[in-house]
Every structure is written in C-alpha cells, then in structure tokens.
Amino acid sequence: MENYLGAQRPLYEVKANLFKGLSHPLRVRILEVLAGDDEVGVTRLLADTGLEPSHLSQHLSVLRRHRLVASERRGSQVFYRLAYPQIADLLSVARTLLGEVLHDTARQLSATAELPLTPAADR
Q: In this protein, which residues make up the domain named HTH arsR-type (predicted)?
C-alpha cells in the first residue's frame, strides 16, 4: 500500500498509523462529537471537549494528518466532519468491544468470590 509520499508500506503499518491518530482520549472524544453530526463548528468542539483553543487545534491537526477529519472554512468559522463515515462505525465497534470486555471482567471477578479461601487467607 502506498502512503501519501508514494513509498510502499505494508498494510499493518498503515493501520498502525491510523490507530496513532486515535491514540489520545481527547482525539477519540472529538471524533465522537463529530460522529453525532454532519459537521461541527470549532466553537461547539471547544464547548463539548472543554479544551483550550490551542490544545483543540493541536488535536485537530493530528486528526487531519491521519486523515480522520476534514475541515472547511466559511468566513471566519471552521467546520469539521469525519473524513469517512466508517470512522463512526469504528467508534461504535470499539464501544461494543469494550462493553464485552468489561462484562467478561466483571464475570471473572464475580467467579473469584466463589473460590474457597486458601489457608494463607484464613490468617
């Protein structure tokens, strides 16, 4: 697969680079906000994320570099949207997966409560 510089790279490296764009909780939050609408202005992103303008700008820059968001300037306003609708699907799958992992963890913790105590635990 070619990257934007034209060099050949294995698909797993390209995928890993995509996940680098997702590797910060606030970037995931930005994507979640964008997934809820066709496009969102910077003012709303600031309000919904609680970020300072400079920090939001840095995260949006990373998301643009990894081709996860697209932007459009209209007058003095900048609007952002998901670059691809599949990004919303990816966030949804991640949420479902995390729910299953947490459910399994809770089940395993519950099962440990039913284990007999060891002699060392009786002291």
A: 7-102
